[in-house]
Every structure is written in C-alpha cells, then in structure tokens.
Design a protein that fits this description.
The chain has twelve helices and seven strands. By secondary structure, the chain is α/β, with parallel strands linked by helices. A seven-stranded parallel sheet has the order 3-2-1-4-5-6-7, with helices on both faces. Helix 5 links the parallel strand 1 and strand 2. The longest helix has 29 residues. The radius of gyration is 23 Å and the shape is globular. The protein starts with a helix and ends in a 22-residue tail after the last helix. Belongs to the short-chain dehydrogenases/reductases (SDR) family. This is Ketoreductase domain-containing protein. InterPro entries: KR_dom (IPR057326), NAD(P)-bd_dom_sf (IPR036291), Sc_DH/Rdtase_CS (IPR020904), SDR_fam (IPR002347).
C-alpha cells in the first residue's frame, strides 16, 4: 500500500476553518476548560495554586464571553430566556430561490425538496431535477415586470412563500474602463435590484403574518474591494446595506420582528460563477483561504432556517476578519491585498455563467 495515499487526504482537508472548529470545542470551550482546574485539584493541588487559579479565571472569562454573545443573539431575535422557538416545520414551507438552476441554488433546491419542502425556482434557464416538488418559473429577476408576473403565479399555485432566498448572481470580471453599460446594468440588475423586486413581491405577506425568513446571499467582496471586480463589489456592498436597513424596518416600523433575515457572506465557492478565475492554490492559501464547496453554503442556510434567528454568516473563517481590515494602516491594507493575491485573481477570468445573447458569440 502506498504510504502517501494514506496521509494525503488528511492534509487536503486541513485548513484554518478546521483548526478554529477544534479550538472552539477545546481551548475556547468552557466545557473543556472546566475540567482542567478540577483535574489538578484532585491531583493534590491547592485551590490557591496557579495550576488551579489560572484555568479557573480563564474559565470565568470564557463563560462571560459566550454569555454576552448568546445574550446578544437572544436580544436581536426577541428570544425568550427560558424557551426556545417552536420547531421549524419544513413540510409547511414554500421556499423561493432565485438563480436556483445551478450552483448553490440548485443544490439548495434539491436538498430542500428531499425534506418535502415546496420549492419555487426563479431562473432564466430550467433546473434539471427529478424532484416533483420543485417548481420552475422562467424569470429574469433583474426585471420587476417579470418578477411581479411570476409572483402572482406562485401565490396562485403554491401559496404565499414563507422563505425567500435571494441567490442569483453574475460577474463580469472586467476593469472599470472595459465595462460596457450593458455589463453594469446586468450586474446591478441581477446582484442588487433582484433583491428589491423579490422583497417587494413577497415580503408584504410575511409582514402581515409576522412570520417568514429572508436569506440574502452576498459575498465577501461586498466587504472589501478588489481590482477587476468594481461592479460586482459595489453590487454586493449595496445588498449588504439593504439587508441591514431591512432588519431595522422590520423591527422598528413594520413591527414584524419574527420575519427573520440572514445574510450569507461567502468567499470563493466552487461553482461555475468563479471557476475561471486565477485563485491561488499554494498550501498557504489553501489553508488560510480555502475554496468552499456549495454544500457548505447550503448547510449554513438550512441551519439558519432551522435556528429561526436573524444572523450574519461569514464563510470560510477568514472572512470574519475582512470588516476589520478596512481599519488597518494603508501599508498593511495593501500587504493584505498582496498576500491574498486579491487584485490579480481576475487577470485570466473568462465569463461562463450568466452570458447574455450578445456575449454567446464571443
């Protein structure tokens, strides 16, 4: 037996996210730390010994940290201190997914269908599936007239949607000086305006019932700008701010806090959308900035729906640091761009997803 084949899969799966997951259940986990001072105490150490005192203090600090984090989540979601929300009844849900014919949207649609969820897929091309409870509606979600017409059909045929997943996306990968007017219109139409149109069509029914969930699939590039992605970054940044404003409107003005909102900000996903970019594949980059499979995003969406909490999800772990990178000195900010190869990843990009009729001959 080849010895190398035994160890390679382990190192292939070793990345920062796995390390963080292990640490969160050990060094940063109160349950694990709780037993350290107890162990030394029963080994004969006194309660005043450093081996007992320091782990005990660290345990208290960890408990305070997790308590504050839990309290913040509870407050944001108007939760009860003693009672969890009722179980999420998957069989009663009608889920609308934009861009559901490929990539993350397709996998999410099929995964939900297995749970006997009624799914409505909005896309310009049909979804290939054998699941009978996936309903396809041809729709260019960048156009309000088409979304409005399809929304009426969905309400008549399936009922009012209880979950809307705004997932549709397109990327041009061009310099600002090379972007055509049609490029920019398509980017903002699909990546930004479609969110407004689906919310305008489906949100009023959720507000009336004070029940539902809006999932906004954004991007880490809505947090940090990179070269050759100006339109994409701007469209996703707009979506992030729209999502935040929506939360305040639901809580303060509509008085519908039980309509939950989840913002997903992933890094590079292994889908056709970014398949032709020059993403760094060195061991360092694979460890720090791994490409995530679509199933990781789908799991996070399903978990968010199951939790029935409003939240922001950053995938993979390094994306959590991006909001803070903006506050670094300029030379450190540029260093971060250089280390991640962010400004050069699109040099050889070829658009393969979301091609318009005028681009298909190119």
């Amino acid at each position: 037996m080849d010895h190398d084949t035994d160890v390679t899969p382990v190192f292939d799966n070793l990345d920062l996210d796995l390390v963080v997951k292990v640490l969160s259940h050990t060094f940063f986990g109160p349950f694990f730390i709780f037993f350290i001072p107890i162990f030394f105490f029963f080994q004969g150490s006194k309660t005043t010994d450093p081996l007992v005192v320091y782990p005990s203090v660290y345990f208290v600090i960890l408990c305070l940290f997790w308590f504050v984090k839990w309290s913040s989540r509870l407050y944001r979601n108007q939760g009860n201190l003693f009672f969890a929300p009722p179980r999420f009844d998957w069989g009663e849900q009608v889920v609308v997914i934009t861009g559901g014919s490929s990539g993350v949207g397709e996998l999410l649609a099929n995964t939900l269908a297995v749970r006997n969820v009624t799914v409505a897929v909005l896309d310009i091309k049909p979804i290939v599936t054998e699941n009978y409870n996936i309903n396809y509606y041809k729709c260019d979600v960048s156009k309000w007239e088409e979304v409005e017409a399809v929304a009426k059909k969905i309400k008549e045929e399936l009922g009012d949607p209880t979950v809307v997943v705004n997932n549709a996306g397109v990327v041009q990968g061009k310099l600002i000086t090379d972007l055509t007017a049609t490029d920019v219109q398509q980017t903002f139409g699909v990546n930004t305006l479609s969110h407004f149109w689906t919310l305008k069509a489906f949100l009023p029914a959720m507000i009336a019932k004070n029940q539902g969930h809006v999932v906004t699939v954004s991007s880490n590039m809505g947090i940090s700008g990179v070269a050759q992605m100006s339109d994409y970054c701007a469209s996703k940044a707009a979506v992030n701010m729209m999502h935040e404003a929506l939360r305040f409107e639901l809580d303060k003005l509509h008085r519908a806090p039980s309509v939950r909102t989840t913002l997903i900000c992933p890094g590079r996903i292994d889908t056709p959308l970014f398949s032709k970019m020059d993403y760094p594949e060195t061991p360092f980059h694979k460890f720090l900035m791994p490409t995530i499979p679509p199933i990781t995003v789908v799991k996070s969406i399903i978990q968010a729906l199951d939790d029935q909490h409003s939240q922001t999800v950053y995938l993979p772990f390094y994306v959590n640091a991006q909001p803070y990178v903006q506050h670094l000195p300029s030379f450190l900010r540029d260093f971060a761009q250089w280390v991640t190869n962010a400004d050069y990843s699109m040099r050889t990009f070829v658009k393969t997803s979301g091609k318009r009729e005028d681009e298909k001959s190119e």
